[in-house]
Amino acid sequence: MLLGNKIIVVIFFVFGAYITLDYFSLIRTITPAFDNLEVEDARRNNTRLINTIDNEIEALVTFTIDWGEWNLTYKYMDDRNEDYIQDNYLPALSLFQDEKLELIFLVDMDGNLAWGRVYDPATESMVDLSYFFSSIDTLLQSFLSRTSLDHNENGIISTNLGPMLIASNAISTNDGESTMRGALLMGRLLNDSMLETLMKQTQLDITYWPLQGSDSAVLGIEGLATLPGEGEIITNVSDENILLTYSYLPYLYGGGLLFRVETPRLISSIGNATVRLMLTSNIIFFTIIMIILFLLLRHIVTKPLTNLREKIAEIEIEPHLDALSFKRLFTDRNDEIGDLETEFDLLLGNLAKKNSKLQIEIDERRKMEAQLLYYASHDPLTGLMNRRGIEERLEQVLSMLQVHADEHVLCFLDLDQFKVVNDSCGHIAGDKLLKKLSVELQAVIRNNDVLVRFGGDEFAVLMEDCSIDQAYAVASSMLKAVQDYQFIWESYSFRVGASIGLVAITHATPIDLIEIFKQADTACYIAKDQGRNRIHIYHSEDIETAHRHGHMQWVNRINKALEKDLFCLYAQPIALLRDNSMNHYEFLIRMKSETGGIFTPDNFLPIAERYRLISKIDYWVVENVFRLLSENPQFMGEVDFCSFNISGQSITKADFLAFILVQLEKFGIEGNKICFEITETSVISNFDSAKEFITTLKEVGCRFALDDFGSGLSSFAYLKNLDVDYLKIDGVFVKDIANDPIDLAMVKSINEVGHIIGLETIAEFVEDDKSIAILKEIGIDFVQGNAIGEAQAIEGILAAISRPTSSLS
């Protein structure tokens, strides 16, 4: 039978029974019933107030337990390290203000106050303890004596500023295995602000009085003969409009709070109105129908729906709802409520499946983020800290020098003859040698020294709390370890050397990270210049030597090239293998010498990156590429896109991103004509910045290529969260692909995964037709290299662009 039919049957049955009720019986039964209901409602209001206060105390207890059973709190009671207090209790008074606390006490096992503060919400500042308490010794002893690992003392106490909710918890570790180290007390004032909150939560009109003893004056005013007992509620009729209920909450140590709740006598008014309405038969008839309908709805509809709501509440307390733990929650019914339960079951089942899938995705993302965070400061090949990691650590050391006159040493180590191994046996052998040497070097440095792979074949060591003489001894051990190590690869045997530079970091050292790196690099350069396989300690006059040689010469050349506009653009075609068209170009930078020669990027870009000049070059490239495209509309119209490299140092700078957007608008360049190339190493080192950089420029149509893919981390996980368009496979895997099966397998793997993710692939360093055929068979999308076309000055490209589009033969 349907639910509606059930209601109709019951309505007629009840109507027939109640139609004969006598008018006078209604008068005798309705008024007392409404009066009793009103009293019960008023008492429930008072009970709800007491429960709300108990809930506030329980919330305070829970918060106190969290902090009391925290390992750091336990540790503080042992070592009294003030860092714990500064880090957790005092920063901008946030703990007191956010949690609405006015009291935090840490009491040791002797009943002494290890640390404590009281907070005055009126002045929003810490105040003296006497502001709240005339004496706290008895209070501390009382709480400590009643607090144990199995018992928490909580309730209400009296203070100079009024009643206070207070809770204590034994200070122990969170595993519950430790011994008690004292008690943690936390308190909240039951002041006007809290009273207002209680009134909002309960929607009640509340008044309270703090009492000591019987306080007959208050009782007399309120017309009470005695205080309510524990759990007792006294009802008092104030007048025909208000019903008063009283309850009493005792303090923990004498006295207590008398609460009064004023309840409007709405129910009584309704009862009187009902009686008046029943003076006529029609009013009696319709009132009976409404009562019957109410009772029926409550029995047939409201109660089942209430049960349904309770079941839903059970779901809310489940910590995890997934497809494995999901089970049917309701029993079968043959009515509309049953249909509702069935639909809810289906909905909950689908939700459980989606929740399981979402949890898997969240776990994968967290794992990836943890890996990215690690790789941001560590070298993936050796597992050592990378340049970014040592920069952060060195910044800390330099800041501490302003306070403590310590002495530290930075060591640079540059391997000698490493290129011989790389050129003779390939990059795999070179990587193996770097990993082996990192183990050898780690074994001879001090335990607290930080070994870093600075890049390429360079290492660095930060030696904290170390004199220059001690550092020289460590460096000597490092040099011997490198010289003594014999590296064997297949049928080859190699020995390498090292040039080591040391620079002292003291209070007199210029507080400049770049300057210290420059000094260490200078010392390393001089060691290499003096014959290699030696150690050189930096002296102030060394900078003159460095200026006359090596890196400093290139630094000067780079700065002069920027000042005199001695950089120029070359371009190399990129061919689309699908139709052999060449409508894509990569812009490459060159430096002109003052005598008319041309320097390739490998001569000056590593120096520019090391000495933080690379961003200036990036600015030059962006402006000049955009200007060239603007001044040559035919070229811009013919090509699909033009690409060029951006360094990792630049993508972290917000002003560089803003500069690109301004230049696009200034020169009227369409975003889809530009493809920025960034290396995977720079992306991982600055993942969040790189992601924001890419997202912003993709919004205006720009494209992105991940350059030299495979040379760094070669992890595909982060590609799902990085909105790039192309993968440029590192040329070290491509140039010998026709002869090396390992290189062939690497290229196949990168191409396949790239296509699955939705990226197009570009192979670099394509040197012959045989390689082109293999790459086409694999399914590579684009190829670039001397077999397609050598890089040439942009003027030659512009001259040729007017001719028909060239293609691969």
Number of strands: 27
Count of the separate structural domains: 4
- Please indicate the percent range of residues in DSSP E strands (runs of 2 or more): 15-25%
CATH topology of the largest domain, by name, is TIM Barrel
Radius of gyration: 40 Å
Shape: elongated
* CATH homology group of the largest domain: EAL domain
Report low-confidence residues grouped into runs of 5 or more: none
Number of helices: 29
Decide which structural class fits the backbone: alpha+beta
How does this model look, in words?
Helix 1 runs antiparallel to helix 10 (281-316) and helix 20 (614-631) runs parallel beside helix 23 (654-667). It contains 29 helices and 27 strands. The chain has 4 domains: 69-197, Beta-Lactamase, CATH 3.30.450.20; 318-376, no CATH class; 387-548, Alpha-Beta Plaits, CATH 3.30.70.270; 556-800, TIM Barrel. The strands form 5 sheets. The chain has an 8-stranded mixed β-barrel, surrounded by 5 helices. The radius of gyration is 40 Å and the shape is elongated. A hairpin with a 5-residue loop joins strand 19 (581-592) and strand 20 (598-599). By secondary structure, the protein is of the alpha+beta class.
